[in-house]
């Protein structure tokens, strides 16, 4: 513990942002990382609890008190080593993780939690700036071959761990660039894509091969982006590789079955967001869906919806409204009731702050338009009675809408991927696999493993990294009979 009285002396200081008027001009990140002095002070706030709840609140079990202390002492290189012990990609989580560790921080019970995420961000950025992040190739080869399907955070974490254990790893990705939703989905202003590129370079130097634009399986639904130029059948992969990890994410979007859904100008968020990622990467996109000069309505109050708001503002939308079906949560959580768990409370993202109207407990009844183009969204207010959602009488209203973005989450993985492999599904259509015991991460077919959103349903980057790492250990044990990879 760096400074015994630090938690009493110093206030929490969040990272600052560039002002909206300057950040809305481009798609670059706008969060300003802590200075050395600020990071030292923030590290000093950690009480080094005997039972650090932050550590168990963090899905990858980051060893947070140790690196808080090292940052207080300004030993960034050692802090980076501790951080990398539990997290392959802290530059992703240090930017876009909602930080469940902070909800679990003991200091948060009667004060503001330690700014753990801002400290993580600082450590990994120092690491890259000083050239401390280097490839770590295995010192021996096992001769075993592993295929990983999907290059999102789960697939990347699994592939890196397996390569470091000496296996020959090939990642198959249907998109033209690696990264999963980190690349195509999450806007560049939250995570610039050079962060992914340099991790891919590191992994290639560690021996991982990437086969991009390659779909494993067949008959992909039209509602899911598929830019693949080549198709590989699962049975061919199974013959060539000693083990397969399916990490294809949960890509089947939730649709809105209301009259008018077919009108032009109504799109899934995941048709809209990846197009802007591609443009930012220098690609040309034919007939890009643009919010410029439009009245945009975003349906869905989560992360994806907020990303649509931020992107629409950068396009220059005239007005943006975001509707959420659930009631507005309280501004402050009831800490004694919820600590150390993730609380339900009103969350206002930087995208919301850039400008948008938000409304809760609203259900869309229909979409109306002229000449096949959407012009209006008709909605009503809803309330919950006996656990059922009911329409509030006489509450119908409408809003002008030239662009409607459906951001209501994802129902499941694409079923065709799991069916092509012939693995069992759970009740929600995810790949059935446990996370504990001798059968951890293995599907109903021996040698075929599953990790990330495809196994747990739509979730977070940090959970995907955890699952990728734990799955890698399970695969290593399956191939070698034992493993030194961390669990
Ligand atoms: C718009 C948006 C914003 C988000 N924002 C955040 C955030 O701020 N913070 C956060 O923690 N989480 C966020 N999430 C959630 C997070 O991105 C996911 O939980 C995480 O990426 C899941 O990782 P994954 O590796 O399991 O799957 P994914 O990232 O979905 O990657 C799966 C990959 O597999 C590929 N693939 C699928 N099937 C095949 C196949 N048959 N053959 C070849 N390739 C295949 C896909 O093309 C994709 O690249 C967001 C999600 C979305 C959609
Ligand atoms: S719970 Fe908070 S105060 Fe305690 S060790 Fe973790 S970060 Fe430090």
Describe this structure in words.
Residues 37-68 form the 4Fe-4S ferredoxin-type domain. Pathway: Amino-acid biosynthesis. The chain has three domains: 6-129, Alpha-helical ferredoxin (Fumarate Reductase Iron-sulfur Protein, Chain B, domain 2, Orthogonal Bundle); 145-252 and 411-480, FAD/NAD(P)-binding domain (3-Layer(bba) Sandwich); 255-408, 3-Layer(bba) Sandwich (FAD/NAD(P)-binding domain). 33% of the residues lie in helices and 17% in strands. It has helices spanning 6-9, 20-23, 36-44, 53-57, 64-72, 76-86, 90-96, 100-104, 116-129, 153-164, 194-205, 234-240, 269-280, 303-315, 335-338, 350-353, 415-421, 453-456, 461-480, and strands at residues 16-17, 31-32, 145-149, 168-172, 209-211, 214-216, 230-232, 243-246, 252-253, 266-268, 295-299, 319-323, 357-359, 362-370, 373-385, 388-391, 397-400, 403-406, 410-412, 448-450. A five-stranded parallel beta sheet has the order 5-4-3-8-20, sandwiched between helices. Strands 10-18-11-12-13 form a five-stranded parallel beta sheet. Strands 14, 15, 16 and 17 form a four-stranded antiparallel beta sheet that branches. The longest helix is centred in the last third of the chain and has 20 residues, at 461-480. The relative contact order is 0.13. The mean pLDDT is 96. The protein binds flavin-adenine dinucleotide and iron/sulfur cluster. Flavin-adenine dinucleotide (FAD) is lined by residues 96-97, 149-155, 172-175, 180-181, 185-186, 190, 215-217, 247-249, 273, 303-304, 307, 417, 452-454, 458-462, 464.
């Amino acid at each position: 513990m760096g400074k015994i009285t630090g938690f009493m002396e110093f206030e929490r200081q969040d990272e600052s942002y560039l002002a909206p008027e300057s950040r809305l001009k481009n798609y670059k990140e706008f969060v300003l990382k802590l200075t050395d002095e600020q990071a030292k002070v923030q590290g000093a706030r950690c009480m080094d609890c005997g039972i650090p709840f932050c550590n168990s609140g963090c899905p990858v079990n980051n060893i947070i008190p140790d690196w808080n202390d090292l940052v207080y002492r300004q030993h960034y290189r050692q802090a980076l080593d501790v951080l990398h012990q539990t997290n392959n990609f802290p530059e992703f989580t240090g930017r876009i993780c909602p930080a469940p560790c902070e909800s679990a921080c003991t200091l948060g019970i009667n004060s503001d939690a330690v700014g753990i995420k801002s400290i993580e961000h600082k450590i990994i950025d120092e690491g890259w700036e000083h050239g401390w992040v280097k490839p770590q190739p295995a010192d021996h080869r096992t001769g075993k071959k592993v295929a990983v399907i999907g290059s999102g955070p789960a697939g990347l974490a699994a592939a890196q761990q397996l390569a470091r254990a000496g296996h020959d790893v090939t990642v198959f990705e249907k998109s033209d660039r690696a990264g999963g939703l980190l690349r195509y989905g999450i806007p560049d202003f939250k995570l610039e894509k050079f962060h992914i590129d340099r991790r891919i370079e590191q992994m290639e130097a560690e021996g991982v091969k990437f086969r991009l634009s390659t779909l494993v399986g067949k008959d992909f639904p039209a509602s899911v982006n598929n830019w693949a130029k080549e198709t590989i059948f699962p049975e061919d992969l199974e013959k060539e590789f000693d083990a397969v990890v399916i990490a294809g994410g949960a890509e089947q979007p939730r649709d809105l079955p209301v009259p008018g859904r077919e009108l032009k100008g109504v799109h899934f968020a995941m048709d809209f967001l990846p197009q802007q990622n591609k443009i930012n990467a220098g690609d040309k996109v034919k007939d890009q869906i643009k919010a410029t000069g439009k009245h945009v309505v975003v349906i869905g109050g989560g992360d994806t919806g907020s990303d649509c708001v931020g992107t629409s503002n950068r396009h220059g939308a005239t007005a943006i409204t975001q509707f959420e079906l659930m009631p507005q949560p309280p501004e402050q959580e009831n800490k004694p009731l919820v600590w150390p768990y993730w609380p339900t409370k009103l969350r206002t993202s930087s995208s919301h702050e850039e400008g948008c109207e938000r409304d809760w407990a609203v259900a869309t009844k229909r979409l109306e338009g002229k000449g096949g183009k959407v012009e209006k969204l008709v909605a009503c207010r809803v309330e919950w009675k006996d656990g059922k959602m009911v329409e509030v009488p006489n509450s119908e209203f409408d809003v002008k809408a030239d662009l409607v973005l459906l951001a209501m989450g994802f129902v499941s993985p694409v079923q065709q991927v799991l069916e092509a492999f012939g693995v069992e599904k759970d009740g929600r259509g995810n790949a059935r696999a446990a996370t504990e015991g001798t059968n951890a991460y293995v599907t109903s077919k021996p040698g075929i493993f599953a990790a990330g959103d495809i196994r747990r349903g739509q979730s977070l980057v940090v959970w995907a990294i955890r699952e990728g790492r734990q799955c890698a250990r399970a695969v290593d044990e399956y191939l070698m009979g034992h493993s030194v990879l961390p669990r």
